[in-house]
Amino acid sequence: MSAEVVAVGAGLAGLAAAVAAAEGGARVTILEKRPEIGGSTVLSAGLSAFAGTDEQAVAGIADDPATLRRDLLETGRHRNDPALVEVYCSDQLATYRWLRGLGIVYGEVHAASGQSVPRSHPTDTRVLVRTLLDRARSLGAAFRPGTGAHRLIVEDGAVRGVRTTGGEELRADAVVLASGGFSRNPELLDRFAPRMGRALRGGAEGSTGDGLLMAWKAGAGVIDTPYIKGTFGIHPDPDGAEGGTGILAIYKGAIAVDRSGRRFVDESLPYKEVGDACLDRDGGIAFQIFDAAVMERSDPSVPIYDFAARTGNGLLHTAPTLAELARDIGVPADALEATVAEYNAAIESGRPDPFGRATLSGGVGAPVPIAVPPFYAHPSTAVVLATYCGLTIDPDMRVLDVFGEVIPGLYAAGEVVGGLHGAGYVTGTSIGKAAVFGRRAGLRAGAAA
User: Fold this and answer.
1) Helix orientation angle between 429-448 and 82-101, rounded to the nearest 10 degrees
2) Most buried of the four, 138, 189, 229, 266, by CB within 10 Å?
């Protein structure tokens, strides 16, 4: 069996690559080792970081690629690959319009981690991946669920296809690796991120590093492994009713306290940095503390901001007073009351925050007192949902070997690649990267084929 382009993985990146390649006239085969599509895409909060969109214009939000570029570089502490940042910023609006043209609908724009202006565009990720798969199949792409890629076929230094887990040789002129990260591979996590041993493990069941290892065997370089971080906001009970991405009430006005009842971090920092700080506390546990005013900002369309949904599943504690709330969650009541009083007094007087907090998230929103009963507490820790590091690639999404040279015939996109995020993470750039880089990889692979 032959195909001009093989896309390995049926998450957002792989499906975007398949559609783009097929729209360019290539014959495409999509491999997905799991029975279902979506991968980590459908487990995410569904936020895409786009700048200059129609939704932002309607909301009166001024944004542009230059501002997005600055946020990416500053949040990534300039450890990002500038060429990949440029690709993201230059292609993101066209990718957004491409997805809108396929029927994807985005909701109200929100502010979040690493954003100097609100640019998190929510969408239903299951609709997103299903729309792309339907489009790919309408263009003649073959979809093979339950079929994993086992090894790359390499001949004379060039990739000429893949061998499946069933032993089949699938020849191709170009292979696009979009197989996700390795959040479900304990050995790789222990090797690259031993600090995450205290974090919970999440992500898609298929995120075991297959594509990374196949490309690694073919000589590919790997980048950004020191920056694997856990995502703050997940409930710490691994056997509880969480089953999602957690909540980030801190970005709507909550504070984070540890088991002593005291704050320990600037809550406006990127939630992966907050996650690092949380893992360093006693037991790796913190509590997001907020009041009725923050609860009113709950938004059911965005999982990380859907606070109200947690009142009925046992994940959220509530009490009429801070003292009762403290006793309920097992922290010293006098310490929690003093912490909230000090926080409120600093806001009202305009004094500098002792942890440097000046906004709610990134550069957006002003901190507000926590004063309106009832009061709420969400036990929180960090979870490794995605690995945000991976293969070295060039701006054409071609995989580079350990010497920085192109491996002919091999492309990659999505969570399996590194270079974009650097040392920090801007909310929405994981889903955004999957779409932007996936589409670009498909266009380039299809043209090469």
Assistant:
1) 90
2) 229
Alpha-carbon span 224 to 427, nearest angstrom: 17
pLDDT digits (tens, 9 = 90+) for 15-39: 999 999 999 999 999 999 999 999 9
Minimal CA–CA distance to 101: which of 11, 27, 20? 20
Which residues, 6+ apart, have CB-to-CB distance to 424 below 8 Å? 75, 76, 77, 114, 227, 270, 272, 273
pLDDT in tens, 332-377: 999 999 999 999 999 999 999 999 999 999 788 999 999 999 999 9
- Cβ neighbours, 10 Å, residue 283: 12
Where do the domains of the chain lie, and which CATH numbers do they carry?
Answer: 2-227+387-448 (3.50.50.60), 234-384 (3.90.700.10)
Span 291-323, pLDDT tens digits: 999 999 999 988 899 999 888 778 899 999 999
Residue 3 to residue 27: CA distance in whole angstroms: 6
According to DSSP, residue 257 is labeled: E
Are 288 and 310 a contacting pair, CB within 8 Å?
Answer: no
> H or E stretch including 169?
strand 169-177
Residue 50's Cβ-side half-sphere holds a number of Cα atoms within 13 Å equal to: 30
DSSP conformation letters of 191-233: HH-GGGGGSEE-S-TT-S-HHHHHHHHTTB-EE-GGG--PEEE
Radius of gyration of the chain (CA): 22
Q: By C-alpha distance, which of 253, 444, 228, 262 is closest to 342?
A: 262
- As a 3-state breakdown, the chain gives helix, strand, coil percent values, each rounded to 5, of 35, 20, 40
Cβ atoms within 10 Å of 58's Cβ, excluding its own: 10
Q: Are the C-beta atoms of residues 373 and 401 closer than 8 Å to each other?
A: no
DSSP 120-154: EEE--HHHHHHHHHHHHHHTT-EEEET--EEEEEE
